[in-house]
Specification:
Length: about 260
């Protein structure tokens, strides 16, 4: 049986028998939408600076440092509570914002400004994996259904918005996320839920993603075909960036760039 080979921006070739697959499933972040070298904490720090400016314009005097630290605390506490109550689930971003605004004494509408700042930052920072998107478009034109499955606290509507802003004209037919289904890829349960929603057999789905455990091991555990697309160099750079940030040098650099 002839195999189709596709290449994407990561140094891995995709090989699959075209007649054996009906649905191509892709991870979003660091697979379709590529992040740069900045670690998560730095991203939160820069988001906080943007959000502080937006809140000041709305008449709310809160520092970027307070926003940054409250975001870290709220996210940490929310996920700690999740581990105790429902370890296979996920935390929606709205819950994190609610905790954050409550601690800071901000009105409820401040959460929308926080979300807008976060989405604007993400849209400006992400870049599309054009090679992969081009190949997905060709597969979709050939009759394959293309879906996205993401372990992320963002709701589906915001993920669709980011896709439209970063990769306009993308070929993805549907987006599923852990925040709305309250199941994760890392537990494999999100894959099983999506199979039911799509009405497709696991053996007819190929999943692509950068996380070895969530996108490869857990997808295979759920019965899907899976291809791991690692970004090893970028993950190493993020670890180094995290060290710089915690040492203080990264925070000073971020302040200078703000």
């Amino acid at each position: 049986m002839r195999l189709v080979t596709a290449t994407c921006r990561v140094p891995v070739k995709l090989r699959f028998a075209p007649t054996s697959i009906d649905v191509i499933s892709v991870d979003l972040f660091d697979t379709v939408l590529l992040r740069d070298h900045r670690c998560e904490r730095r991203r939160f720090l820069l988001m906080a600076r943007q959000a502080a400016q937006a809140l000041r314009q709305a008449g709310h005097d809160v520092s970027a440092d307070a926003l940054y630290r409250s975001r870290l605390d709220a996210q940490r506490l929310a996920y700690r509570a999740l581990e105790l109550a429902r370890p296979q689930g996920d935390v929606p971003l709205a819950r994190i914002y609610h905790m954050q605004t409550t601690v800071l004494g901000l009105p409820a509408d401040a959460a929308e400004r926080l979300k807008a700042a976060e989405l604007d930052f993400e849209a400006a920072s992400l870049r599309p994996n054009r090679r992969l998107l081009h190949r997905l478009a060709a597969l979709r034109a050939g009759g394959k259904r293309v879906i996205a499955i993401s372990d992320i606290y963002l709701p589906r509507v915001d993920l669709c918005s980011l896709l439209g802003r970063v990769a306009p004209g993308h070929p993805i037919d549907a987006v599923y996320c852990s925040a709305e289904l309250n199941l994760t890829k890392r537990s494999s349960e999100l894959f099983r839920a999506v199979l039911d929603l799509e009405g497709v057999q696991a053996r007819r789905v190929l999943h692509l993603g950068d996380d070895r455990r969530a996108d490869h091991e857990m997808a295979r555990r759920a019965g899907l075909h899976a291809q791991w697309l690692p970004r090893r160099r970028m993950k190493l750079l993020r670890k180094l960036d995290g060290v710089l940030l915690l040492s203080g040098a990264g925070a000073q650099a971020a302040a200078g760039a703000a």
